[in-house]
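User: I've been trying to design a sequence by hand for this structure and keep getting stuck. Would you show me what you'd pick, starting by listing the structure so we're on the same page?

Assistant: Good idea, let's start from the same input. This is the structure you sent:
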């Protein structure tokens, strides 16, 4: 446990001055290979796929922010999820949140299942369903909370208890809230996963992913996967995420404030229905959000009446950009059925409750009055 508070960690964890020059920013070590000091001896690094000084600093920072014992940075969030499941074996069983990022479903159904690993999608907000899904061969329960785009919460502590009683580990995709607003490891999870592409980078100018573990075998396993499979984050991307992390607490404060203001505006708008945002008292899991989160985040989604209404809204927005992704300083709006869930069949989307009018918002750090005025005029155009 670090003696420092979160904002201090964000600025300083892994980000001490360069021992060689005193540079206060972590240098970008653009070197694929490192001079050895003899046969079988080195200065800590030999080849950048196995380890790079800039990546080491980011991995230290990520572990500190999530309260884990090791951090591992990958090329993308999907590469991190691939690494998470790379050590499972044929015959193993994964329980996965049903309402999970569609890219995770694509990876699991179209690639991972081909290795003989069984994946079972469960409504993990329903603890009885999680308990019922556990099998002797269940190795991993992978959850995403809040979920995308319906903002359904899973009780991390309760799921960890169930999984551990059955000898399985719990991994949490913490991308939507960032380590600033949710600490899955403190709630009993074993591994945290991030798409650093989102809030950790924070500026929509890079792709990356991370795994943060809690046990010596996680470090051993993820280091091996980095070295053997090779999907490691480049030194420059690591620098961008390190730079982003320094302002994470400040950015999140503004994201949060704007998120609440926008949600309050949308909640009473006549053209908006089924607003999903865990910070509203009307959200069925508001109490769980208060209990397990340190804030409500700035992701939300709502329904318009049809795909045509959604198209008119997305054409009319001026500050919000019609774009996929989330967690950057700029506000984004996207049509869930054709973007994040475009690869999911209509039937599955219907089952999930994602209709053709569903719009997801990622609220940025612009002035909240400007954002609300933009939404107001775009809804007027609907
Ligand atoms: C919740 C969540 N997890 C994982 C990913 C995948 O991350 P990446 O795009 O960095 O591969 C995304 C991307 O949108 C996401 O939203």
């Amino acid at each position: 446990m670090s003696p420092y508070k979160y904002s201090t960690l964000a600025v300083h964890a892994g980000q001490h001055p360069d021992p060689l020059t005193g540079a206060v920013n972590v240098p970008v070590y653009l070197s694929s290979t490192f001079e050895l000091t003899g046969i079988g001896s080195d200065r800590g690094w030999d080849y950048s796929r196995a380890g790079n000084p800039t990546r080491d600093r980011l991995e230290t920072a990520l572990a500190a922010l999530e309260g884990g014992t090791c951090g591992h940075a990958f090329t993308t969030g999907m590469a991190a999820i691939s690494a998470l499941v790379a050590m499972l074996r044929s015959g193993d069983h994964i329980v996965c949140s049903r309402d999970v990022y569609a890219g995770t479903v694509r990876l699991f159904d179209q690639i991972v299942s081909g290795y003989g690993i069984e994946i079972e999608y469960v409504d993990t907000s329903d603890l009885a369903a999680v308990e019922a899904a556990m099998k002797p061969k269940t190795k991993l329960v992978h959850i995403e909370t809040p979920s995308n785009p319906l903002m359904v919460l899973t009780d991390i502590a309760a799921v960890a208890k169930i999984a551990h009683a059955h000898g399985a580990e719990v991994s949490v995709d913490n991308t939507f809230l960032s380590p600033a607003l949710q600490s899955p490891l403190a709630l009993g999870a074993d591994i945290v996963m991030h798409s650093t592409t989102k809030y950790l980078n924070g500026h929509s100018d890079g792709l990356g992913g991370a795994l943060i573990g809690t046990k010596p075998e996680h470090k051993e396993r993820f280091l091996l996967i980095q070295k053997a499979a090779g999907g490691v984050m480049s030194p420059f991307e690591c620098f961008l995420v390190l730079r982003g992390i320094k302002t994470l607490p400040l950015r999140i404060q503004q994201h949060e404030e704007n998120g609440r203001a926008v949600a309050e505006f949308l909640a009473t708008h006549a053209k908006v229905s089924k607003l999903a945002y865990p910070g509203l008292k009307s959200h069925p899991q508001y109490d769980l959000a208060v209990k397990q989160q340190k804030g409500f985040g700035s992701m939300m989604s709502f329904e318009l009446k049809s795909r045509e209404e959604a198209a008119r809204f997305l054409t009319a927005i001026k500050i919000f950009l019609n774009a996929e992704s989330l967690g950057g300083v700029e506000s984004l709006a996207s049509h869930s059925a054709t973007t994040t869930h475009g690869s999911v069949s209509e039937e599955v989307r219907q089952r999930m409750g994602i209709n053709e009018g569903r719009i997801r918002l990622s609220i940025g750090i612009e002035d909240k009055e400007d954002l609300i005025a933009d939404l107001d005029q775009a809804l007027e155009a609907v």
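That's my pick for every position. To get oriented when you compare it with your attempt: The longest helix spans residues 248-267. Residues 6-246 form a domain with the Aspartate Aminotransferase; domain 2 fold (CATH 3.40.640.10).
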